[in-house]
Amino acid sequence: MSGMQGGGRSRSRVSGGDVAAQRAENAEAPRIPNLLRRILGLFAPHRPALIVTIVLVLIGAAMSVLPPLLTQRAFDEGLFPQDGPPDLERLAFLVGLMIAVYLGSVLLGVWQTWLTSTVGNTVMGALRVRLFTHLQAMELSFFTKTKTGVIQSRLQNDVGGVAGVLTNTISSVLGNIVTVIAAFVAMLLLNWQLTIVAVILMPILVIAQRRVGQVRARIASKTQESLSDMTAITQETLSVSGILLSKSFTRQQTEIRRYADENDNQIRLQISQQMSGQWFFAMVSLFLSSIPAIVYLVAGALMVNGQTDVTPGTIVAFTTVQARLLFPLLGLMRVALDLQTSSALFARIFQYLDLVPAISDAPAAQAVPAEGPDVGRVEFDRVTFRYPDAAADSRPTLDDVSFTIEPGEFAAFVGPSGAGKTTVSYLIPRFYEVAAGRVLFSGVDVRELEQKSLVSHIGIVSQETYLFHATIAENLRYAKPDATPEELETAARAANIHDTIASFPDTYDTVVGERGYRLSGGEKQRIAIARVLLKNPEVLILDEATSALDSISERVVQEALDTASRGRTTIAIAHRLSTIVTADVIFVVDGGRIVERGRHAELLAANGVYARLYSEQITD
């Protein structure tokens, strides 16, 4: 189980984890008001199934002690009646009744398992989708400051952890309680003296179970840590990037040794964990074997002294009931921790569900205007912005920035690294909220626009192109799911990538590999451009889209970008100034402010920051 800062590492659950560590981790869980009411609310749609489940659990647990009582009757009234030979008719009736009870228990058990599994997994699935949906609505800053492993832990480990609670804990608790009570009552009804003998030895096993359990728990915790380390090594070294790195530096043997060493550690821990429990199971076996023998001895002594009317059937039935008492009793010992752990899991899940997105639609949010003179205009009006995790007294990333880009214009933002250029591209689609001032899109403050409508009018091509491990066609259709093959080809031709795709054996059905590693950088960028062209946005943002390419790939991609930008408001965040010399307007950003603006020739003539940057690149 992972806390919010756990980095995605998951410990074992209550059944195998360190009890002390589990309690400490549970104590660190967030405090959620009305947690129990909210948990019960998840089950509200399944109330009839839950009621039936509880009834089945109670009936099944009560039925579990009937066979021993019927066994007593079978012995005393069928096999060894006091007044003669075995009564086969009576015996057959009792045996048939026992079989009927066993069959009923089996059928009830199957029905109960189906109900609990259906309800538990349905609730878990709905909770997982609900959490995933909520995370989709969170602002970009949430993901930049939260480890991916932590988010995955919420979706997989925590939601998966409550599945066991939903499907097992409640029915197990009810079943064990009823079984223990029924077994104890049955033992008293059979013979109270033998009950005292059987129960008085129980604490010995309970103490032993706790001691051995603590040892196993510590080893189990170390085992989970080792498994986490092995998983980390696998993720690091067997990803495409990891394989490229190890091959580039010929460090494959080093990675093999690192994995093998951790694997050896895992083997030792697994063996220790298995062996640490052998004494406990040996004691359980000895206990279960000894109790009937001791019961036989005590019963014989009582019968010799005439202090009881114990019959052979009573002895057999008593030892059978006693065997059914032990494990439910031990299971109940862990109930409190199980419930505490489930509450901690639910608290962590609800903590994420209670997060309020920092950026959301205003109550009267409107769609982006479809027509008018302002459609496609982008304007910053005295915008000041600092990132959410920045210190309050730190210098703003953007400070009192104002500019206007007219519809259809090609505008470029240039400047030193860290000047705030990319931040401009984040504020236009409202991925972040400005601290002061206004960002206007098509003449409307972006805070007054529906986010979905705003983003649908903007296309973004970034330096780090992300492609799914899917076919080229599937990657393109991410922008337009219902795009026809003809539309895909048109977009690909406009992006200068169709001929390349057509040269592949599977053409548009070619699988690009993880993050598009089967393609070159230029090919990935042109597919990304084709994807944006399918979206057909009014405003195109190019965030250093060619900075990582070689000169040949850059030229091909630049031609595609020129085609994509025709007839659209285009905003280019540029590192290579040679790509934006034809821009209608160039904004020079330095220290979070726009220090120069104009065309290429005008800025060179001004002999300022732009001229210096251009001179440095030409010299290089």
How many β strands by DSSP?
Answer: 10
Radius of gyration: 36 Å
Derived from helix and strand composition plus strand pairing, the structural class reads: alpha/beta
Task: State the CATH architecture of the largest domain.
Answer: 3-Layer(aba) Sandwich
CATH class of the largest domain equals: Alpha Beta
Distance between the termini: 53 Å
The low-confidence parts are 1-17
The tally of domains stands at 3
SS summary, helix count: 23
Major sheet details: 6 strands, mixed
User: Helix proportion of residues, in percent?
Assistant: 55-70%
- Give the overall pLDDT as a whole number: 79
Subcellular location: Cell inner membrane
Pfam families: ABC_membrane, ABC_tran
Family: Belongs to the ABC transporter superfamily. Siderophore-Fe(3+) uptake transporter (SIUT) (TC 3.A.1.21) family.
Protein name: ATP-binding cassette, subfamily B
Give an account of the 3D structure.
The chain is α/β, with parallel strands linked by helices and 620 residues long. It has three domains: 193 residues, ABC transporter type 1, transmembrane domain (ABC transporter transmembrane region fold), CATH 1.20.1560.10; 118 residues, Up-down Bundle (ABC transporter transmembrane region fold); 242 residues, P-loop containing nucleotide triphosphate hydrolases (Rossmann fold, 3-Layer(aba) Sandwich), CATH 3.40.50. The strands form two sheets. The protein has a six-stranded mixed beta sheet with strand order 6-7-8-3-9-10, sandwiched between helices. It has a four-stranded antiparallel beta sheet with strand order 2-1-4-5, covered by helices on one side. Helix 3 runs antiparallel to helix 5, helix 9 runs antiparallel to helix 12 and helix 20 packs parallel to helix 21. The radius of gyration is 36 Å and the shape is elongated. The two termini are 53 Å apart.
